[in-house]
Amino acid sequence: MSVTLKAKDANASNSTGKTKFKISDLDFYYGDFHALKNLNMDIEENIVTAFIGPSGCGKSTFLKTLNRMQDLVSYAKVDGLISLDGQDIYQKNYDVNELRKRVGMVFQHPNPFPKSIYDNIAYGPRTHGIKDSAQLDQIVEESLRGAAIWDEVKDKLHRKATDISGGQQQRICIARAIANGPEVLLMDEPTSALDPISTNKIEDLINELKEKYTVVIVTHNMQQAARISDKTAFFLNGEVIEFDDTETIFSTPKDQRTNDYISGRFG
């Protein structure tokens, strides 16, 4: 399998080199099942970090630990440290609502609310106490512009978000996440249900989003990881086998298992 790397522009990365998330000695359990094993990783701000690996290897599970979505599973258990800007997000009394405002999530399948496009975007800000109509109008427009869909829907804001195309719905979901003013965007296979044209639009958008946000994406598409990410982690059986610059992972991996996976020998 041949993987084409994106052209590297010396000025393309907005990375400050600052660690946004620090993960140390992380273990995660579903009951007795040891799903994540001794993960250690620094996720830098303002870059795109991709997680690759075969199905069931822990990528999405790990992604969800970063904004505590796994709290919704009663038999889940986390050991180790996940810190956001130096603060342990699993410490007692940590404000989970504030965490999910700072760390937004976009899921595999577009999941807009069965409401108008406007109400989808305004939902989060309203939940956080913003009631002024002019301020909401501004947030809605800025969020839709940020998701590169304003020009397509500006005359349809009161149309149901579920009535537009799948690719547009996914960008509405990205705009909905942006509307909360996050610092991090987590994306769990955001293009797997989309056609190639919509996929290209989302990929272009992700490259723009890292100017303002830290982006972490799970993808089964290795070509996609090579095109859009700055760093890549290869997961296998709940472990991170290798984590490095994307160019290094795809051109000169250090671990034979990584090479076998990106060469298409398994997965």
UniProtKB/TrEMBL annotation:
Q: Which GO terms describe its molecular function?
A: ATP binding; ATP hydrolysis activity; phosphate transmembrane transporter activity
Q: Which GO terms describe its cellular component?
A: plasma membrane
Q: Where in the cell is it found?
A: Cell inner membrane
> Which keywords are on file for this protein?
ATP-binding, Cell membrane, Membrane, Nucleotide-binding, Phosphate transport, Translocase, Transport
Tell me how this protein sits in the membrane: Peripheral membrane protein
Q: Does the keyword Nucleotide-binding apply?
A: yes
The record ties this protein, via PROSITE patterns, to: ABC_TRANSPORTER_1, ABC_TRANSPORTER_2
Please name the InterPro entries in this protein's record: AAA+_ATPase (IPR003593), ABC_transporter-like_ATP-bd (IPR003439), ABC_transporter-like_CS (IPR017871), P-loop_NTPase (IPR027417), PstB-like (IPR005670)
Q: Where is the ABC transporter domain?
A: 21-262
Q: Does the keyword Transcription regulation apply?
A: no
Could you tell me the superkingdom of the organism this chain comes from?
Answer: Bacteria
Q: Which GO terms describe its biological process?
A: phosphate ion transmembrane transport
Q: What role does this protein play?
A: Part of the ABC transporter complex PstSACB involved in phosphate import. Responsible for energy coupling to the transport system.
Q: What is this protein called?
A: Phosphate ABC transporter ATP-binding protein
